[in-house]
Design brief:
The protein contains eleven helices and 16 strands. The protein is α/β, with parallel strands linked by helices and 383 residues long. It is globular and about 70 Å long.
Length: 383
């Protein structure tokens, strides 16, 4: 008779923000239940539940990047995470510092009051790098979180006496993972990385994911691209390059919209024990037209699963860097044409020219990056 090993289940989801068009929709238990009822059975399968909380819950500070999108929500909106029985969030992202360090500290206090742990951000670099350790059924799991400061992500790094996130720097990450693996049975790392709206991670991110496994991480959970990316088994670790948008509403006043596949998310259930990690179940979910979360079924589920398989299969190709560069060029060319069509052609040449001139520093900088990436295929990137 085979002896059963002690194990725990970790349920992981993608990026979450709770403001925008969700403000005022989560005031009562009935309101919140309507939004999350479709995914609750899957979350209930986890002993520990984790996601990336990609917004701030205090707007009293000064934005370090006022010309970028500012993603925030009222503190009461956090009741939704309590209803999901969430245990831990990563604050290592590009929006937890949207209103500065004091607002980050206030957000952490709101989470503390609700019994939700966090990793990846803090009052200085040592605090931002601090792991969270959970122990259940004799299994110790350690969590770490990091975010890239590359312009594709734009996170604000913590420093000496400076609020911010734990930066995506290999030397720091290696030191943290190698130290933590001596104290726990399984190291889980949440990463905010990559390029938005592309289904393939930069080659440098794949290399970093592999190194994290070599240093001792067993599970890597990727966030930020707002779309799904592939899953890879590397040695004895699992790398999910992007879990997509779990619940990220539109912020209409900033013209921040998510459409179609940008509202897709992977819910992943992992079994962790002293021997390692196994992927037990995957479930595709979507924010439907009503704004409520629902599990994909039938033909649509089958189609999206096939796409995910394709995203995963490409990761192992010898010519992956060429595939990546081609994807970047195509995406940026389509993006520039869309801007030109919407901001110039549809507005008329005279009115469109005026609109382009009014786009501001952020948009002109973005257009410049797009042109450079079309010419280079994104070249060799920082991570």
């Amino acid at each position: 008779m085979t002896e059963m090993r002690n194990s725990i289940r970790l349920c992981a989801a993608g990026d979450v923000a709770l403001g925008g068009i969700l403000e005022g929709r989560l005031d009562t238990p009935e309101d919140r239940e309507k939004v999350i009822r479709g995914v609750m059975p899957f979350f209930a399968r986890g002993d520990i539940r984790l996601l990336d909380l990609d917004c701030t819950f205090d707007t009293g500070g000064t934005p370090p990047h006022p010309d970028e999108y500012l993603v925030w929500a009222s503190p009461g909106q956090l009741a939704l995470l309590q209803d999901l029985r969430l245990d831990i969030v990563s604050l290592a992202n590009n929006h937890s510092m949207d209103f500065g360090g004091d607002s980050l500290a206030a957000t952490q206090e709101h989470l503390r009051e609700r019994g939700i742990a966090w990793v990846g951000a803090g009052a200085d670099l040592s605090v931002a790098r601090k792991p969270h350790i959970a122990e259940l059924d004799g299994i110790r799991v350690g969590f770490l979180g990091y975010a890239s400061t590359h312009p594709w992500v734009g996170a604000v790094a913590a420093g000496s006496g400076k609020h911010g996130v734990a930066p995506l720097e290999p030397e720091i990450m290696q030191e943290d993972v190698e130290s933590l693996r001596k104290k726990v049975d399984c190291v889980v790392v949440s990463l905010h990385w990559g390029k938005e709206y592309l289904h393939y991670p930069p080659p440098e991110n794949i290399d970093l994911g592999h190194r994290l496994v070599e240093w001792g991480a067993k599970l890597i959970l990727g966030h930020h691209p707002h779309v799904l990316q592939g899953i890879e088994r590397y040695r004895d670790g699992i790398i999910c390059y992007s879990l997509g948008n779990f619940l990220f509403p539109d912020y209409l006043e900033q013209r921040l919209h998510f459409k179609g596949e940008q509202n897709l998310s992977l819910l992943a259930l992992f079994r962790l024990d002293k021997e390692g990690v196994e992927l037990e179940a995957l479930q595709l979910a979507s924010r439907g037209e009503s704004g409520d979360l629902e599990l994909l079924k039938g033909d649509r589920e089958e189609q999206e699963e096939e796409r995910l398989d394709r995203y995963s299969a490409v990761l192992g190709r010898e010519d992956y860097r060429d595939c990546w560069s081609a994807q970047v060029r195509r995406y940026e060319a389509r993006r520039l044409w869309r801007v030109f069509e919407e901001e110039v052609i549809k507005a008329g040449w005279r009115g469109g020219t005026v609109r382009l001139l009014r786009l501001g520093v952020k948009n002109f900088r973005s257009v410049g990056r797009s042109l450079a990436e079309i010419l280079t295929g994104a070249g060799k990137n920082r991570i």
